[in-house]
Fold this protein.
Amino acid sequence: MTVNGGAGSNQYSRQAGAASLPGRLGPGLLGQLRQRSLPDSPELLASYIQALESELLAARTRQTELQSAVSFICGQVWGTNCRASVEPPEFAHGRHPSDQAVARVGENQRLAPGVLQQLARHPNSMVRSQLLRRPDCPPAIVELLSQDSSMWVRRDVAKRPGCSAQVVGRLASDPDPLVRLQIAKRQDCTPQVLGQLARDPDLRVRQSLVNNPLCSPELLVWLAGDPDGGVLYEMAQRRDCPPEALAQLSTDANMHIRELVAKHRGCPPATLEQLSHDLLPSIRKLVAQHRRCSPQVLDRLSQDPDQQVQAGVAANPRSPTGVLEELYQRHQEESQEGRAAILPALAGNPSSLPQMVSQLAQDTNSQTRQAAARNHNCPPGTLATLLGDNDRWVVETALANPKLPKATLAMWQLSHS
């Protein structure tokens, strides 16, 4: 290796190197570099190179690690008076071991500002990205890297918290959609940036934006008119989706989006009434099960030709008592197959009258009897009768019912001890 410069410069470098480095470097050299404050002076850096190359000759077992350190220091002063055996083109490839050393030293919290500026202009994008992991990365460097030629570096800037509004605004117009996608996830975007991203041509950006809690109700309503189903699918899953947006989504041609609207906890009654006329029984069933469905809609759905829709009405606690009684009278004389979907739902409905629950507890279907044993409206005498059921699950369910009298429970435990 050669170092171009005057004789005095080389003599000073050797003296500085002897004073700056220990006589013997430990095996974790790369880890040591992270804790060593590197000077800006090319002469001092040249002394590091000389000391490390001397160590390289004395410790053949650590050649790769030591050569990485040598390459790193050369990279710090490239373009100055320092020249090393590692040629510049090797720094442009991520396979060279020096890149690992450079990236790790970039984490050193005691690096001088001048070295940070040199690292921000390093030919390898991995090294430049590593600077963004520093909590104390200067705003000027973040600003510089936000205009980096590498999309990956700009993406890392977009993911970094605490960026200035100017940087966020610039990256919101980045030509690469992966950078804009990261901006759409940020929790510090201004309303102007959010509005700009809502009109982004890339589907992934708009999908990410829909999940951003900073989106205003007005912006969400606007996004509910997005032409892409992926954006609407994400919208329908937002817990705070505005009622106006849900009403708009309820008319979508995609059945999966309508299903999400029909089971949304915040779906308004007017939207549920509209969905109750849907051609798909699965959507009408979700409406029948919804806790915000109006009694008038439930009454109409109890006459639905699909039994699963009727079962949804039978299980809904908001269903009027008269509707539940009518369903029971209509289905109690049907075959076992026709009763299987309706009667268990009626037996487990907390709005069912005790008399009807008591009658359902005598059904031949064990699932209906178990549902009645779970119902808090089940009369105590009926629960006592169910303790003698020939199905163990019915018995255990009746024992767990808090309405079972303690005296009855004690007698049962005594007889089964």
Observations:
- Confidence is low (pLDDT under 50) at residues 1-34, 59-63, 74-97.
- Residues 163 and 304 are 57 Å apart (CA to CA).
- The two ends are 92 Å apart (CA to CA).
- The first helix runs from residue 7 to 20.
